[in-house]
Amino acid sequence: MRKLLQKGLQNGLQNGLIVAGFGRHVMVETDTGERIICHPRGKKNTAVVGDRIKWLATQDEGTIEKLEPRKNLFYRQDEIRTKSFAANLDQILILIAAEPEFSESQLSRALIAAEAEHIKPVIALNKSDLKIPFAKAWERLQPYKEMGYDLVSLSLKPKNVSIDSDAGDFDIEQIEQQAELLMSLLQAKTTLVLGPSGAGKSTLINAVVPNATVFTQEISQALNSGKHTTTSTTWYWVDEAKTTALIDSPGFQEFGLNHIEAAHLASYMPDFKVHVPNCKFYNCSHLHEPGCGVLESMRLDDKIDSSRRKISLERYRIYSSLFAELSEIRY
Predict the structure, then answer these.
(1) Which of 54, 123, 224, 266 is geometrically suited to a Cys-Cys bond with 13, CB 3.0 to 4.6 A?
(2) What's phi and psi for 116, nearest 5 deg?
(3) Is the pLDDT of residue 109 over 80?
């Protein structure tokens, strides 16, 4: 009887992709493109946007029966909770702006979290029309370009605002070139858009996804039943063929890295990682040890060997602060 029941259950299972999450419930897109609210069988929901699942239809909704293996999971963790953004990503687009001034510490934390999950990060700096603030911000990002990160300039503008009415100095041809470059980076990939509030994430989503507003309204209608809480992360298809996807995430003020061990921190920072093999001690903290390759690199002249580039004082300050923070958590 038990085997027959299991066989009957499996026969009713359907494939699904989680495209939105709200509390214990998720919105699942079926292979035929339909969307349905599903919930886990237990009290805890571990499924996130981007997960592939097996689900079973019930009277008016569905239940999550199986979570397919993930290739990655991007998340942050502080002393209170773990916040999962999305799973099965090809890349993360970290969107920051020339104004308000971005936090280099928060940028570094997001990059470290991406490196830890082997997810390619792309840094996009918005508001290139604000010439002076943008030039200063772009200069601050040059060390990240030297580390090998893709760096993109953008001038995102809401569709309902005229370019002529903005105080910025817009170059239409430049904006079109930026848009083409952005689309080439997104093509045939699943990309999580990450960044602080005010950086322009909503404007980017609306510019790239033709039906973003429609899907948002669909979610709102699903929530009107009073059963669910507000959605925080949403999957959007960019093209009709469904080969390119953007995932919108909520803005954040803090980005905890409690899941990262202090001893592994340098290996997730490219400008540090290149010097670690030169350290005398295998468990070097890169803070005070004699024969430390990282500390030695900070005394090198750039003209000696460009491959042995120095680490900026700001990046070293971020590393030192993070190392102390993560060490305190565990000890």
Answers:
(1) 54
(2) -65, -30
(3) yes
